[in-house]
Amino acid sequence: MQFLLYLTLCLLIAIMQDLTGSTRTLDHIFEYHEIHVRDNEGRSVIIAFVLNAIIGALILWNVVGRTKLCLDFSCTFHGLHLLACWVYNGSFPTTFSWWSLNIACAAITCVTGEFLCLRTELQAIPLSSIGAKVDL
């Protein structure tokens, strides 16, 4: 899950950076000062994170497939991302924009993943393959 979410995030950030004409660096993923709305580059990073949250929900639905596990996987990804950002920057992330974006993305991934998994889990179980001997 961690690999898939980082892979899609890297691809989305690469596409967004091509659209804005900025250089590609790991700072866009791990540097918490890069998340801002002052210019197109910062806004493209925010859009990439939000799109990745939606794609993460789809990945949860396809890979995990269980409603009860969506919160665990979502919080694990964002918790490990917090640790990676902390190590990469050498200091704990303190900006409001970083925290609000990551909390919102964790919520989007968790709630949307739970919704999709719940819809799959609540589908009717077909009984046509049991046979005619069962009296319902």
Automatic annotation (TrEMBL):
It holds the Pfam family SYS1. The chain crosses the membrane at residues 45-64, 96-118. Residues 1-22 form the signal peptide. Keywords: Golgi apparatus, Membrane, Protein transport, Signal, Transmembrane, Transmembrane helix, Transport. It is found in: Golgi apparatus membrane. Belongs to the SYS1 family. This is Protein SYS1 homolog. It comes from Iphiclides podalirius (scarce swallowtail). The lineage of its organism: Eukaryota, Metazoa, Ecdysozoa, Arthropoda, Hexapoda.
